[in-house]
Amino acid sequence: MTLDFYGRLLREFGAATGIGRLSFNDDGVCVFVVDGGVHCALAYIANDDSLTMLCELPCDDAPLANDLCLSKMVETSLNSLAGDAPSVGRDPISGAWIAYRRLARHALNVEMLSEALSEFVLWALQKLNAPVDAQSDIDRADRRVFGENITRVV
After folding, report:
1. What is the pTM for the complete model shown?
2. pLDDT single digits (tens) 48-77
3. What distance in Å separates the CA atoms of residue 86 and residue 118, rounded to the nearest whole number?
4. By the number of CB atoms within 10 A of the CB, which of 103, 133, 138, 146 ranks highest?
């Protein structure tokens, strides 16, 4: 029943944003590329009644980039407990830095998912890459419609 809800939500989101047909793979993940190169995903976990947004961060192995991502991981580490903001982590298998945020089912609909994904991707790409003293909240007026920025579904 829960997978039906998330599958329907994903299909409706794809249709509403003009992306096309979206679906979860056998692992419960839908992967897509934003702005021509940023890999993002929506993940459904069967024993957890939530949807997780994931975005690979452009941190490389250069010491300064790693230091920035590590400082953001520490700074955002408790955000996922409150559930109201993204967090940063490092995939133990690939070593890739990722931003993630969980969305509770009770609050999800197509409009909320679209806005949450837009905010999330912009946060990951803008806020994390800005110098610490230049960071500010994302201006809602500058937010683009999320579906316009998805270049392909993987």
Report:
1. 0.73
2. 788 999 988 776 655 555 676 677 766 666
3. 12
4. 146
Tell me which residue has tokens 């056998």: 26
| Contact predicate 38/98, CB 8 Å | no
Two tokens at 92? 């133990």
CATH of 2-153, one of 3.30.1460.10, 3.30.160.70, 3.90.1150.10, 3.10.450.10: 3.30.1460.10
Q: How does DSSP assign 21-64, residue by residue?
A: -----TTSEEEEEETTTEEEEEEE-TTSSEEEEEEE----SSHH
Q: What is the DSSP string of 72-134?
A: HHHHHTTHHHHTSS-EEEE-TTT--EEEEEEEEGGG--HHHHHHHHHHHHHIIIIITTS-GGG
Show me where the domains of the chain are located. Answer: 2-153
C-alpha–C-alpha distance, residues 19 and 10, integer Å: 11
d(CA 138, CA 149) in angstroms, rounded, equals: 17
